Amino acid sequence: METLVIATKNMGKAREYRQLFSPFGITVKTLADFPDFIINEDGQTFEENAFIKAQAAVDHLHLPVIADDSGLVVDALNGAPGVHSARYAGDHDDAANNAKLLHELATVPTAKRTAHFHTTIVALKPDGAKLVTEGRVDGVIRQQPRGQNGFGYDPLFMPQEYRDKTMAELTVEQKNKISHRGRAMRALMEKFESWWRA
Ligand SMILES: O=P(O)(O)OP(=O)(O)OP(=O)(O)OC[C@H]1O[C@@H](n2cnc3c(O)ncnc32)[C@H](O)[C@@H]1O
Ligand SMILES: [Mg+2]
């Protein structure tokens, strides 16, 4: 069977991609299958970082690759944590990142706690064939975390599609229907067949 690599070490992302690719009959691997391989994400934008990850993985693995760079963009913080979302509090630690976000927003009232998640996906083949898509979901940042599903900032993010649920209270199917990553994936899917078969 043909293999597609999702160039991520984040198992929360990997779970979402496996669900999105489940109808395709493609073997989906992630960087968990290649543990010694480390990518330095030093770009300034989501698209630069997604491309850096995709290119590094293609060069190393010689397989078709999908990479995403994503993050939380908070209006009251002038767009922070943005491209620095994974290491906002210093380490790649979701609980510490959420605590820092609540601290930074401590004096910001509910009406001004608007934010969105953004994803840029880059699909890249060893021959250089490339697709780029984006997706976003808008919502507000809660005062306390709630929910056990998802990853990252999901327990603090209330998507506007649900009246009183955080992203971490949705199933992976529900999250993919409305999420930044799900939307970017559906945009990718419009061009995926011809990219994959070419
Ligand atoms: O680079 P890879 O290995 O894919 O994994 P990562 O976790 O470092 O991923 P990013 O570089 O794209 O950083 C995105 C960070 O933004 C946050 N994030 C991204 N998508 C999210 C989502 O769907 N729900 C909650 N938080 C998310 C989370 O803190 C991620 O660590
Ligand atoms: Mg990363």
Automatic annotation (TrEMBL):
EC top class, as a word: hydrolase
Keyword Magnesium: yes
Catalytic function, reaction form: dITP + H2O = dIMP + diphosphate + H(+); XTP + H2O = XMP + diphosphate + H(+); ITP + H2O = IMP + diphosphate + H(+)
Binding site for substrate: T8, K9, N10, M11, G12, K13, S70, F151, G152, Y153, D154, K175, H180, R181
InterPro entries assigned to the protein according to its UniProt record, in alphabetical order: dITP/XTP_pyrophosphatase, RdgB/HAM1
Protein residues bound to Mg(2+): D69
Comment on bound cofactor: Binds 1 Mg(2+) ion per subunit.
Active site: residue positions: D69 (proton acceptor)
Cofactor(s) the protein needs: Mg(2+)
EC number: 3.6.1.66
UniProt keyword annotations, A-Z: Hydrolase, Magnesium, Metal-binding, Nucleotide metabolism, Nucleotide-binding
GO molecular function, one term: ITP diphosphatase activity
Keyword Isomerase among UniProt keywords: no
Subunit structure as annotated in this protein's UniProt entry: Homodimer.
Similarity comment: family membership: Belongs to the HAM1 NTPase family.
Functional description taken from the UniProt entry: Pyrophosphatase that catalyzes the hydrolysis of nucleoside triphosphates to their monophosphate derivatives, with a high preference for the non-canonical purine nucleotides XTP (xanthosine triphosphate), dITP (deoxyinosine triphosphate) and ITP. Seems to function as a house-cleaning enzyme that removes non-canonical purine nucleotides from the nucleotide pool, thus preventing their incorporation into DNA/RNA and avoiding chromosomal lesions.
NCBIfam families: PRK14822.1 (NF011397), RdgB/HAM1 family non-canonical purine NTP pyrophosphatase (TIGR00042)
Protein name, UniProt field: dITP/XTP pyrophosphatase
Organism: Limosilactobacillus panis
Lineage: Bacteria, Bacillati, Bacillota, Bacilli, Lactobacillales
